[in-house]
Amino acid sequence: MCVLSGWSVTYTPQSICALKGSSVELHSYYTYPCDHAVTKAFWFTTWVDGEENPQDLILDVGARYTGVTVGLTVTELQVLVDPATVKKGDKVTLTCSTTCSLSNNPTYIWYRNSQPVNDLHTADNRLDIDSVSIEDAGKYSCAVKGHGIHSSPELILNVRYAPRNTLASVHPSGEPVEGSLVTLTCSSDANPPVHSYTWYRKTGNESTWLGQGWSYSITNISTEHSGLYYCKGENKHGASD
């Protein structure tokens, strides 16, 4: 635009934060004195460590005018988790993080095991789980609405919990033969895995401690060994019931 005096180049906006792989538009307009003519206007790209002039106007008298720069920052998405170590019942916050604040107030979409998350609370770029359960474990990623193909790398949410579903089994199965060898084994679902098993024998209302280990063997079995046998598993988060 021709004005009585002065040169200027203006950008709207002057700073843009864009998602890697997306499209952006850089808008500018300029003014120049009416006793000159602009013969060419074009864009320059200046890298962070570059020396190229960022924006020039070529004038009819061979002069050149350089305006201020417009900043374009390109970012990728990353999922962060707080706290870093998660156990059952904890409050957990997942954040879809960027290195700059994305323009245009984007809407964020969350995925668990590649499926959209619809059963958890989301706000801005956060996904909040007030009391995390074992079923909440999985691979989480986030994306900006309209740019699903540029989603973040997956983050594995590993939910730790005390032993559950503890089960004692007998080998060989069926009615034991008097005088034979019977081995009891214990299994339990836990994260991290059970670090110790404890065996008990219950007769009437009394429980007797038998020993520790994944298995418990009874040699030369007889009627004196009759009773209810059970095991308990334990890890750093507690013991099974």
Task: Write up what this structure looks like.
It is built from no helices and 24 strands. It is mainly beta and 241 residues long. It has 3 domains: 71 residues, no CATH class; 82 residues, Immunoglobulin-like; 78 residues, Immunoglobulins (Immunoglobulin-like).
The CATH H-level superfamily of the largest domain is Immunoglobulins
Structural class: mainly beta
Helix content bin: under 10%
Mean pLDDT, all residues: 86
Produce the secondary structure layout.
Layout: E1 2-3, E2 8-12, E3 15-19, E4 27-33, E5 38-43, E6 55-59, E7 64-66, E8 71-75, E9 78-82, E10 86-87, E11 92-97, E12 108-112, E13 115-116, E14 121-123, E15 126-129, E16 138-144, E17 155-157, E18 159-171, E19 182-191, E20 196-203, E21 206-212, E22 215-218, E23 228-235, E24 238-239
Parallel strand pairs: 1-4, 3-8, 10-18
Antiparallel strand pairs: 2-4, 5-6, 6-7, 9-11, 11-15, 12-13, 12-16, 14-15, 16-17, 18-19, 19-22, 20-21, 20-23, 23-24
